[in-house]
Every structure is written in C-alpha cells, then in structure tokens.
Amino acid sequence: MEFTKRLLNWYHENKRDLPFRASKDPYHIWVSEIMAQQTQIATMIPYYNRWIESFPDVSTLAAADINDVLKHWEGLGYYNRARNLHKGALFVMEHFNGIIPSTKEELLLIPGIGDYTSSAIASIAFDQPEIVIDGNVKRVMARYLNYTENVNARKAHKVFESFLKKELIESKANPSDFNQAMMELGALVYTPSNTLCVGSPFKEMCAGYRGENIGQIPYIPKAKKVPSFKKTVWYYQQNHSLLVSTDDSDGLMKGLLRLPMTDGHQDTPPLLTLKHKFSHLEWDIHVHPLSEATSANENWHLMDLNEVNSKAMITAHKKILIAHLEQIKPSQ
Asked: Which of the following CATH numbers is that of domain 228-323: 3.30.565.10, 3.90.79.10, 3.20.20.190, 3.30.40.230?
C-alpha cells in the first residue's frame, strides 16, 4: 500500500523525540493524550513529566488528593481533564483491578475517555487496529482527499476513518506507528498555514499537493461569537496573607481558588485590565484594590501566601498575580 509505505517512511525519518513515545505503558499514553487535547505539545511536555513523576501509575493517581491533582494541572486550563483523569483512575482501580483494559469497548467505560482517547490507547499501547482522528488527522485527510465539507461533522469522521482503517488493515502496518505517523504529519507538515502541503510524503497522491483544493481546506464553520461579561476582581494583600475567594457558584472551574470577583465594572480607573476567554464565554476583567479586608461575601477570606501557593488557582486570576501587582513567594 503506497499511502502507508510513504507515511511510515516519512514518520521514521522525521518523528519528534517525545517523552511519552518512549513508553507503551497505557497509563502514560492516556495521560499524554488527555494533556495534548487543547494544548500544544511543547507546552504540555513539562507538565507531563512532572505529572508522571508525581503520579507514575493508576494506583498513585487514584490515591492522590484531588487538590494536589488540580495543582499539578494549574496553567493547562480545561480542568475537567484533570478531574476526569482522577475519576478514571478511581474507576480503573474499582472495576478493572487497577489494570487499564486493552479494548476500545472497555476503555469507553472509563469516565473521561471518549472515542478519540480510547482509540489512541488501544492502538498505541496495545496495537489494536483502531483509528485515531484528531484535528491534525482531519487536516491531513481533508487536503489529501480534497474533502470540502465540514471536517468536524460525523460524516467526515466516518469518511476519514473508513479510508484509514482500510489502509491500516490491508497494509498490515503497526497500528501504533500508523496512528502516530498521521498525527505527526498533521502537526509538522499539514499545518494550518501550509495549504499546499509542501513537504508531503504523498506528493502527487495528495490533492492539496497537486493544487486541487478549492478554498480553505479543511473547512470548519466559523464559531459563534461568545458572550462577554464585565467582571471586577478585587485585590488585597496584608503582610503574608492574600484575600481570596472560594465562591465557585458560577459553575466554572469548581474547586479552584480565585481572587474576590464581582459582576460589572467600577467608575474609577482600574489597576489592570485583561480579557480571559473560555470555550463558551469571555470575562472582561478590571482589577481594583481594596483598602481593607472585607467580609462582604462569606466565601472571601485571608489566606497565608504559602497556602495560596499550594493550591490551584483559576488561570485568569493567576495571571493577575504573576503579571501584575505582587509576585507571591513562599516565606523563607
């Protein structure tokens, strides 16, 4: 099969030396795939290394305190990924005697593991003939096939999966190498800006390389504009204590520490402004000082800076502490 031959030859010559590729441990692959979702590889690697050092296996993660788990995730965002990893580890300990299953069907039973992650673990760790389709793979296949419809629709997933599974099975290639090669090709060659697929190992086989693509490939409908909400963050520090809030009644990032925040903007000039986007909304934040600690909200209280450092704080508010005002450092 020429497609697979060219793909794997390119992969073995060009693949990056990534820490999680050195292991067939399904737990390590599980963690790496969850971290890589919504995060650039270069960004997630130090997080991955710290995570594996602290939680080297399923049993260690399952036994860990959720606050410690969230602290290790701090800065990666989308904290439900960390919570689901923890829930998943508990599930594996309870239902699979601590052993991660090898089949996609059983992997799908684990909280936080969906179609993509189950296929990745099954194929990369256990060499099962499953197909992994992420954003990188969609980009490769859309340009290769000149697929002009919405690549995020279920129809596109079926088209790409059918093509790739046929190639995988008929070529008798190693599923782990095959899937990782497709993802790597999308990350390194079939990038968003390389619309003509320059450097493609497929060359004349690829519609994009031949210049046949019409318009922007892959086609992804424009996302709807998210609503923006005005917020005021209040800052107060007293010696080695900081005024913080545990109010997560808005349902966002449950259990994470924050700075005191109220709705709306103040009439006076702010110390700092920033905007923080979530997947479905945006915060337009103005930061203002408080002259004294206040009990205006029962969830606001002074916390020792060492304790603040030990807890995970929502990214928007962590930015305020790091980029402005005073750097929080543990007492000597």
From this structure: 3.90.79.10
